[in-house]
Amino acid sequence: MSGSRHLAWLLLAGLLALLATGVRAEAVGTLGAMGSDTLAGLMLRWGEELTERHPGIRLQLQASGSASAPPALTAGTVRLGPMSRPMRKAERAAFVARHGYPPVEIEVARDALTVVVHRHHPLEALDRETLDAIFSRTRRCGAQQAITRWEQLGLDELTGRIELHGRNLTSGTYGLFRQRALCGGEYRHTLNEHPGSAAVVAAVGETRSAIGYAGLNHLTASVKALALVDAEGGLHRPDPEAVRRGDYPLSRSLYLYLNLPPGEPLPGPERAFLDLVLSPAGQASVTALGFVALPEATLVSQRRRLGLAPLPHD
Amino acid sequence: MSAVRAALQRRRPRAEGAGAWLAAGCVALSLLLLGALLLLIAVRGLGHFWPASVSLVELDDGRRLAGRAVRELPLPDGEGRERLYFTGNRGLDGQVWHWLPVARIVAESRPRDLVVLERRRWGDFIGRLVAVEPAPDAVAAGAGNGATAWAQLEARLAALERLREARDTLQRETIRPLARRLEADPGDGEARRALAAATARAARLRAAMDETILVLESVDGRRLRQPLDEVLAARRPNALSTWEKLAAWMQGVWRFLSEGPSAANSAGGVWPAIFGTVLMVLVMSLLVTPFGVLAAFYLNEVAHQGRLTRLVRIAVRNLAGVPSIVYGVFGLGVFVYGLGGTLDEWFFSDALPTPTFGTGGLLWASLTLALLTLPVVIVASEEGLARIPDHQREGALALGATRLEMLGRVVLPMAVPAMLTGVILAIARAAGEVVPLMLVGVAKLAPQIPVDGDFPFLHLDRKFMHLGYHIYGAAFHGDDVQAAMPLVFATALLLVLVILVLNLTAIFLRHHVSTRHAAPSRR
Amino acid sequence: MNLPSEAPPSRTRWRHRRDRLATGLIAAGGIGVILAVLAIGVFLVVEVVPALAGGGLAVERLHATLTPLAWGTLKAAFWALLFALPLALGAAMHSALFMSPRLRTRLKPALELMEALPGVVIGFVAGLVLAPWVERHLAVAALLLVTLPLGALLAGALWRWLPVALRRCLPLAWAGLWLVPWLVLLGWGAVALAPPLEGLLFGGDLRAWLDAELGLHYAARNALIVGLAMGFAVLPSVYALAEEALAGVPSGLTEGAQALGATRWQALWRVVLPAAAPGLLAAVMIGAGRAVGETLIVLLASGNTALMSLSPLEGMRSLAASIAIELPEAAPGSPDYHLLLLAALALFAFTFLVNTLAELVRTRLRHRYHRLGGAP
Predict the structure, then answer these.
(1) What domains does chain A contain, in order, with CATH numbers?
(2) Residue B269 pLDDT more than 50?
(3) Which among A11, A12, A16, A28 is the top mutation candidate for probing chain B, defined by the most B β-carbons within 10 Å of its own β-carbon?
(4) Buried b / exposed e across B468-494, counting CB within 10 Å, b at 16+?
(5) What predicted TM-score, i.e. pTM, was given to this entire model?
(6) Which residues of chain B neighbour C26 with C-beta distances below 8 Å?
């Protein structure tokens, strides 16, 4: 008898509390994420802001490369997988085989690979064949002749052998550059493989005869990013506007993969996190870290797809 | 003639020949290299915290920049030099560095009103402070001059610091525990209500922090509105006296030691890394001491001293020379994937497929390093045991002690200092070892340190930060090597100091031991 | 005094049982620990051999991947030893035979501290400070390499002509210390002298000259830089072992030679060195073992180019560095994983073998000294 009365009181109190906090219950929990180290800084920044807005939520991030995200998502280790490249077919298939549905792909920022040279390098732009002839030993993009010395480009001020700098085998950057800039060919053996993009930029910034590639967010004043020349002779500079439009040929999207059964609503912590990421404040962090923010249309459409509240327009 | 020669030869000592001098040169050169390396690390590491003056640079085309000169190099054409300035203001320029040809600089001054703001999101701001909004009294916003605005800023920063502390306390003592309770039992209505109230309070605190806006102006006249909440520290380096700079320097050192990293590890402090290193080393020494001593006792006191024992002894000794990367591979394959995977299946199967112990973590890192340093401890302990004269043992046995009593009451106390030396050497080795950790559990940035208020307080499954790995990460994985360099040097200095102190302790102990025990053992 | 015979028999029995139990426990624990330590080799073999035998690793792939790495490892070790051995052995000879005992007791801890310097610190300084500096000042670096050894010789030649009083202040026994400022001075001279020399001999740019005249390409991260950095890391351990071997030679031998009219250097060269040669060999082997397994220095200073070139001015990639950056991302059980484990096995086998040989040689040597009636 008295039990049911207690229950009623409790229910009433609960209802009042809910009303008092704006109907929605405060989300609590720990968000696990595993994947790209390109995105690590950004994820951590978002994690900090998330905890500030929703003190009950924490983000736990493990950043050991894009390749680590799909297995972790498939195994169910984490629900969020940041990746600096889209999932491959095989990775996606493995996920579907395990869970019965594909992972949700969310574009969270854009980035570009830039070809960098020393700040006092005479070169300003390169076309695709030349780039391939410099970096690869296979020359799949159609160059006739290997280029190993700067003289071959007709530069007067700079002679000597070209020193190549790039990332190590397991990084997503290494694979992307190989696929896009080398037409899927093989790197030369003389490539210096650095453990991080910052190291590539630092090395190129010290040597005039060097050339390398690195993400847009790693550029410093010590190096110069080259423009790329397309087949029609158009110049494409790696500036944020061009990357946002998708004009720059080596631009890429950065993704967050989410394990969410179709038809189910987003769980509280994930909802709060994505709400932040796909908001102007979250995208401001993207710009602050040197990446390129998403166009508003993309934000709006992705928010709609995920069932998040529409952006407040002011 | 020959007499003169003979006299000369008599005066000159007998020549030792070129070889002796070359050999002496080798000693000198080794010392020189060691000294140069230590000096480089010390100077660059300690210089990082000195609040360097900011110069206002005017170029011949009328451009104005404010920044800290960092380095100077000759231009590639061989004529003239260029200078690198750290100018901050990433939000305005999209870039924090500027290389300027020295020949184009027409004027350089150090105005006292230049401020340097350390910000959370956009890095440093270098420029002028125009006003603080909302203005506290009748002074119209935007019209306040630099000096009054600076005084206001200092007052507001102090107030902000109090608000931050209040928020952190709320977060740590109220919200975290409630969130954990809710995670464990989502139906806990009381906790949910309390949490909602606490969150509301946190939101109010946050609103109070967001209130103040700084109006800033870069030296070339662009304006910027900066919420004060984002500002971590503010300083006018050109207006500081040497003493104030010294105070700022000491404060910088303290912040470096006591705070967490920021800006993707390229700035901020190293407290979590210090903590992680020390904790890992502690756990490791707890593991390595008993096992190392046990093995030494077995080898020296129990085992039959035959050919097999000799071979085993040589093998153990040699394991000290096996590359640490091999231990890392072993740790990954056996501890993490093997033992960890099995533990997960047995005890944490409800959490699977999320690995609890099946991934790198503090426990496995400590175990791997314990294995790595076992030979060191075994060898040192054995040396200590071998130094104890046999008549001590025989005497104890003759008086009727059992072997255990002999070992425990006579041999062990005499061997303790040698064992301690071994353990300290092991700790020194482990503190500087990074390679195995890269495979078995170090993290670039672990937001949670492995010790907290959650039961069971020490989380052996968590990843941790490490000073050595912090150096590697900041120098090669960060966003900007140039920006991270001072921090890397400071961290390297700290690591070297820790290792020096440990080694000196070991050397002192060994010296102490050998002078105390040498006399009875030799004769 | 509680004599054992007065104790009740039950207590004695209990004590003895406890003793046997404890001894057994110690033995079991000790054997367990030793087995655990030795398990490293077993684990690697168990993981790698089935994959090799089962055809999980294609031979061509193995060959293509591991050959440049093995080459790079040996190349790095070679240049490290080339730098470290003369320095370490020279320092050992000086400190074993010429140095004042007081300085020697101070020097040993200093070099032990040098051994304790973490690889990550040395590697980062080599990769981010030394390599760019040498690249900008190639001529200075080359000149320094020539000047510093010559400087020591020059000091010896000048010393003989010094006035007696000054000579007494600067004895050979303390030369390890007072030569340091002299070398600094010479180094400073080399820095000042290099640019004009470079202009005179190499047209102002040694790098371009090397490229044009000799066809040698200078890469910023090269075997010389790695050798210098790793030599620095290897030096102390070689020094310690060599010094031990030299100092252990029974003093009767040296005294006899000197009594027969040999100078100290002659005694060292003709008598002590041959006697201690096996010990020096052991020191060299231990040094080689360390150089082969050193990971971070090579990773951070070598540029990781999978090249197979002889030129010391070009980079290389080593086995250990490859394992360190690639293993965390290789899925367990995959061919890549097994390949890297094979690399680890190779490192393990090499170092273990070399160290065992060195240890055997050292044991033999200790017996010989014992026979010759020397110190322990």
Answers:
(1) 27-111+252-306 (3.40.190.10), 112-251 (3.40.190.10)
(2) yes
(3) A28
(4) bbbbbbbbbbbbbbbbbbbbbbbbbbb
(5) 0.86
(6) 294, 297-298, 301-302, 407
